[in-house]
Amino acid sequence: MVTVFTVLTSKGCIRETNAVLHFLQYRFDPNVSCLYRDAEQVPLRPRVAQLLAYFLAHPNQIVTRETLLSTLWQHGEFREAALTQSITELRQALKDNAQQPTFIKTIPQQGYQWICPVESRTFSTFKLTTTMKAMFVVGAVALSGVAASVYLVSSSAPVVTRVKAEQDSLIIVPMVNETGVQANAWWGYALEAALRQHLQSHYQLVPRSQYPELAENSAIKQLTLSLKPIQQRFLLSVTYGDTQSEIIVEQLDESFEAIATEVIAQLALGVDTKTAKKSSLNLAMNDYYRGVQALNEQGPQLAKAYFEAAVAQMPEHLESQLELAQICWQLGDIDSATRRFEQISLSSASTATRARYHLYYGEFFKARGLHQQALQQAQLALDAAEQSQQVELIAMAYQLKADAFWVLQRWDEYQQAMSSAHVLIGSRSFAYSEAQRSFYLANPPAAGPAEKTLLNLEKSKPVLAQAIAYYEQTEQTMNLIKALFAYGQNYLVPVVESEPSLLKALALAQKNGYHYLEKQILTYLGFYYIQLHQGEKALRYLNEINGEPRFIPSYEQQQLLIGMAHMDIALQTGDTDAMQSAITQYRMLLESDYISSVTRANVKLLLGWTWIKAGKLEFAEQLTIDAMHDYQMLQLQEVETYALYTQMYIHLLRNEPQQALEIITAHQHTNSHLLLLYGVVAAEMLNEEALQKRFSDQLAGLENSQLLQQQLLQIRQQSSIDKHFIAELIDAPYSVYCQSKWTIN
Q1: Residue 12: CA count within 13 A, CB half-sphere
Q2: Are residues 183 and 133 in the same domain?
Q3: Which of 53, 387, 505, 636 could form a disulfide with 484, with the two C-beta atoms 3.0–4.6 Å apart?
Q4: Mind listing the pLDDT tens digit for each residue in 223-252?
């Protein structure tokens, strides 16, 4: 150990008295924001040090999250997630257990409380004056067996004699099953769980969902496992860095706990397995892990049978009960799922299990359109996840909150929740859940199609491509389906790639009985083919869905898209039967009492477009005015623009260019292609050269406007402009009911 001595001249120094805060084996110097455990400095980020200082200044007080945010994070869209992350880091630095805290106690629905006694002790230091320069004589003396901590006597930060190394990140790679029997893969899930139990306090374990992104990161250590048969037994090969080992496994039973202990010992992973807490495992756990394997690789029907077998042998096993409740509703059995969720007791549950319970229950409420209840469960999940200090669970809770805020039209809170998820897990937070919100009138994005500040398609595209390759290689069917589905929904993926991706996801979901995912993919395929103006094909997929009316959001969406598919056929071909089917479907939706306010506004606009095609402008005008008012109430500015330029188009068809110009000149945001296009046409009809040039220049400045500028050239070549030329030569408002034809091409 090296001790640093510092000698100061007697001149040019001033004496100061400082207070250092002591608690158990720790001391914290608030003057230099340094924390020490005995003689070791514990590294802290500046914000985490400020958080500790605040707690120490307010011991035994219940401090709300709002107070901490207003004190330490006054600005920034990531405040909530930053606080959560800092609490987690501080607990890790103090080796505190959120479930049995020594220092920081979580008070559910209130905040946090510092519960450890704090003692303030003073000491004297010398500080240099600004007029005199101290002369330093520094000597290094090697000592053995002596623990000492000596500071530079100056206004600078202390010299660290020994710094605690941060925990290494570790990926436990899913076991490669080389036995030739797929059913044996369950043992790998069980072994991984046992290894995680032993290693979680010594390593930063990377969640499974992050493996595709981080597998090639050489800075992160990996523990790899493979199992193959050998002389009526099994050979487990394990690798950690440059260390390799092989273990003979006599039979695949509950021995995974003992094998995990042997793996840790042989690889010298630094865990004392003698004192480590042993899991209470028995033969019934075999069925539980077989269920986990089946759920990931073979489908929910087989998984359900295994979880039921586990519960039959272990009636109090919460994890099996929870998976059964989730599987029941995803297979369409709402009553059984409700009963199972209500019967689960959390009195003996770990914080991680409580978090998963509230996440699963919240997803169940969301699927039934009960978004306030989903939001309540999301908050309970977030509270439990923060106590468990598992980043993945915290991020999932934020995503569930975002889903609820989306439907409740609480846009600012939605963006904050998604930003928090992004801070915690990066672009993966957009890859799946956000992809499902990316189609326009079927489910309009909060920021509008033109600017999705959170839907970062560019970042999620390579993440998903990487995930697809990884899940194919590791045969993780459910995750592969989700990755293929999200990749197919990404607008930046060309049709030659997105269509096969969606169809492959559908085939896998149908083959393996993932019925809930199958319905989601079928619904999106309906919209996908409407985008491509293939209404007949869209109807074929939409009619495959056996909709459950009690799953209100998905049922509503399916019915809306059926109307859009009929409308697409009518708009593309003029088929009167298809047009009547669209009108009937939209009217049925408007007369129903289950659709959301957003969908009701969308249906009014879509029905208005259908009436324009049918030549009933008076019907169309009233519907678009009503839709515009609804969008204004819902603060959906981009879709409100659809209603505005639809009204302009109606005025142009009626030879009322002045009324059309009044709409665009009164509108503050004129960055819409069709709004500007119709503005140019109206100005041309009135010979308003200044307005015509202004709108033309604005349109030319927008991306993908070349086709519209060609249409304007054709209009200008006409001796006079009437409704026939308008209808024939320029795009109608319903040319953008999916994306827009000048963008999708």
Answers
A1: 13
A2: no
A3: 505
A4: 999 998 876 678 889 998 888 888 888 777
